[in-house]
Amino acid sequence: MEGDSFSGMANGGQVDNKLIQTFHKSFVQVQSILDQNRMLINEINQNHESRAPDNLNRNVGLIRELNNNIRRVVGLYADLSASFARTMDASSEGDSSGTLRSSDGAGRTGQKRVRPG
C-alpha cells in the first residue's frame, strides 16, 4: 500500500490510514479464529471417528466453542461492513452515483443499488 493509504475507492478519494489499520486488525482476528476453528473441527472429527464415549462427550464442548467462534467471526464481519459503509457514506456525501438512500424503519439508513432489468 503506497503511502499507507488506499486509492481508488469512493470516487478516487483516499481512505484514511485508521480505516486500513482497523480492517487489517479485524482480518487478523478473523484469520486467527478461523485457524482455531480448523483445529477444533479436526479434533471433533477425530473424536467422532474414535467413538469413545469420553471423546464424544468432549465434542459437545468443542462444538459449542466452534459455534461461539462462528458468532464472533460474523460479528467482526458485521462491524467491518458497518465501518466500511460509514466511510463510504462520509466520503461520498453529495455524490449522485446512482445509489438511493432508504430507511429500514428503525431510523437507520442504508444504500440500495438500482438493479438493471
Automatic annotation (TrEMBL):
Gene Ontology CC terms: nucleus
Metal-binding recorded as keyword: no
**Residue ranges occupied by any Protein EARLY FLOWERING domain in the UniProt entry:** 14-95
**Cellular compartments annotated:** Nucleus
Recorded hits in Pfam families, A to Z, give: Elf4
Which UniProt keywords are given for this protein, alphabetically ordered?
Biological rhythms, Nucleus
Q: List GO BP terms, alphabetically.
A: entrainment of circadian clock; positive regulation of circadian rhythm; rhythmic process
- Residue ranges for the region (Disordered) are 87-117
Transmembrane regions listed in the UniProt entry: none
Biased composition regions of type Polar residues, renumbered to the chain: 89-102
Similarity comment: family membership = Belongs to the EARLY FLOWERING 4 family.
Identification of the protein by name: Protein EARLY FLOWERING 4 domain-containing protein
Upper taxonomic lineage? Eukaryota, Viridiplantae, Streptophyta, Embryophyta, Tracheophyta
